[in-house]
Write a structure and sequence with these properties.
This protein has one domain. 78% of the residues lie in helices and 0% in strands. It starts with 6 loop residues before the first helix and ends with a helix.
């Protein structure tokens, strides 16, 4: 039996997906907007917006996926524990990877949304690595999911590398969290403005 969908059903489904992604991103941008960037340079964009907001959104999606897997696993654990309590520890171990991923990824999100220091940025990058690739290794240890080049760890590594590069080297990220490069940009702007003011006289 073949299931077919009309154009309007597909459009409504696509609209719901966009809405499901847009509402949390909008809420995050409003929350993050309450905390100004650590460094301001005229003509340069700072604060949690643009690609930085998209990066936060990706981490939120990863965290929610881990929480969903954790919730499903917890239901199974409770069912098995009610049948036989001798399996408590082996069954509880299966929850460790997704619980760890959710904690680390939500820590990264909170650091990016509410933190405005280089330390917050560093914490977010470390937690992104702990919540992504390291969790894939934990899934291999506790759940027996194989580590191969086309599997989950490789995807997590590639995504985390892209996120890390953006967070560590983008101008918006530097200004938002007040890194040394942002301080240099601010200093250079002030020096240029002073020189221009001197020439204007």
């Amino acid at each position: 039996m073949t299931v077919t969908f009309s154009f309007w059903q597909l459009a409504m489904f696509a609209g719901l997906i966009v809405l499901a992604a847009a509402i949390p991103l909008w809420l995050l941008s409003r929350l993050a907007g309450a905390v100004p960037p650590a460094v301001s340079v005229p003509g340069k964009k700072g604060g949690v917006g643009g690609l930085l907001l998209v990066t936060v959104g990706i981490l939120v999606v990863e965290a929610l996926a881990s929480l969903w897997h954790f919730g499903r696993g917890l239901g199974e654990v409770i069912r098995i524990m009610l049948m036989d309590t001798s399996f408590i520890w082996p069954v509880l171990q299966t929850l460790i990877p997704d619980f760890a991923a959710a904690v680390f990824l939500m820590t990264a999100v909170c650091a990016l949304v509410f933190g405005r220091s280089p330390r917050a940025l560093g914490l977010a990058v470390v937690c992104a690595w702990l919540g992504g690739p390291l969790t894939a290794v934990l899934r291999h240890i506790y759940l027996g999911i194989p580590l191969d080049i086309t599997g989950e760890p490789t995807a997590f590594c590639l995504l985390t590398v892209v996120i890390s590069f953006y967070l560590l080297f983008s101008v918006r990220s530097a200004l938002t969290y007040g890194t040394a490069s942002a301080r240099r940009m601010q200093k250079d702007w002030h020096e240029t403005a002073m020189k221009n003011a001197g020439h204007a006289r």
